[in-house]
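Dear colleagues,

As part of the handover before I leave the project, I'm documenting each prediction I ran so the next person doesn't have to rerun anything. This entry is a single chain, and its sequence is reproduced below.
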Amino acid sequence: MSRPFDSFVLLAEMRTGSNLLESLLNALPGIACHGEAFNRAHLGGQGGTALLGVSIRERDRDPFALLHRIREQPGLNGFRLFHDHDLRVLDTVLADRRCAKIVLGRNPVDSWVSLQIARRTRKWLMTDLRGRRNARIEFDAADFDAFLAARAAFRARIHRALQVTGQTAFFLDYEDLRDAEILSGLAAWLGHYGALDAGASRMVVQNPEPLAEKIADLPGMAADLARIDYFGLSRLPNFEPRRGPAVSAVMAAADAPVLWLPLAPEPRVEGWLTALGGGGEPVRDFTRASLERWKSARSGFRAVTVLRHPLERADRAFREAILTGRYARIRRRLIRDHGVGLPDPADAAGMTPGAYRAALLGFLGFLKCNLNGQTSIRVDRRWCSQVAALAALAPAVLPDVIARADRLEEDLAHVARGAGLSPVPLPALEATPPVPLAEIWGADLEEAARAAYPRDIAAFGFGRWHPEG
């Protein structure tokens, strides 16, 4: 019977027991774990400079050559990979269904304490109790928080890749490495039906004492740990769908090294971009490839995007897409399913302030549901959160300047000067039929906007929207 995997990767961290697990795997005939093959400081084992005929320099130049060399060895071969290793091979091994994923973890406090003691004593492995070294350490809350975040991000990346590709991994905790039944289950999962025995390794636990004997101030550590939000109680829920990069919406000045990254239509900014380019029509309809070519040909270019207060953003989207009838199908759904009172588009300009205000409030209620994934209506780029819109652009292009709508002329002048150009004036503000937002503003509209856009409020520090005048 053919084996289920051609190779394996042990996804772990320092001080989780990965050395012990490697030694146990290597005790099985036909299985070889080649250490930390992609550790930035060494190759394979501690201090190693070459592995399977590949030097550190060769590995750093082409990590996939070493990956291929490991995989082509006889039997079932693998290596250990941590969050701070060279991760250029990570996506490749995660996507490979013939590569077994073993995910090893440990209580993060125990792992962090063990790491600090190892750094203090310079003792990373122990096979003889006569070489044991003890140390008491101080707890550093900031260092532990960073330690925890890095490992959580690595785990999340692994978890998502497995979900996306429909794979599973063999998950182990540090304590499992002494459980013969679990270890035998791992061996069977890898296609090896011999017993995997914890006693096959000469390694011994280095610091078996309780935390009170390893931490100088255990009560202080407990107090610091109590302030860490393990369960994400302060995290804002996010059910807004991920957006693809809206590269086609990016515009460039015709004859100037300036890009505009629109998070929604902005006629004034488009007019500014035209004037900055000497009156020429802005370059539009970029693809990822053409945008890269444009950037490569213009050293020192500047990119700008414009943020608007969530209430103003919703108001503009409502006026331009819903009242005008531009989004006719969504407009009908708002009336039918969400009870928003909307006139015929031909009569929208005659809406009274009260009617417009009620309709806008209804639209904000819809936005809260829409951005939380509670409707079947698409999340349009005109009203998606600005956090999501910027995140979608990030893989293709990032702004040098995030301009604010309430100081637009000043911010755009800064962009022009940064590109070595003279500032040009913004086109005049256009009228906003049927009713200016300033005339109908109130606390209920403000709170409805904040309820619809909590991520934007938190990310960009928006205060209350204040009407002009």
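The radius of gyration is 29 Å. The mean pLDDT is 91.

All the best with the project,
I.
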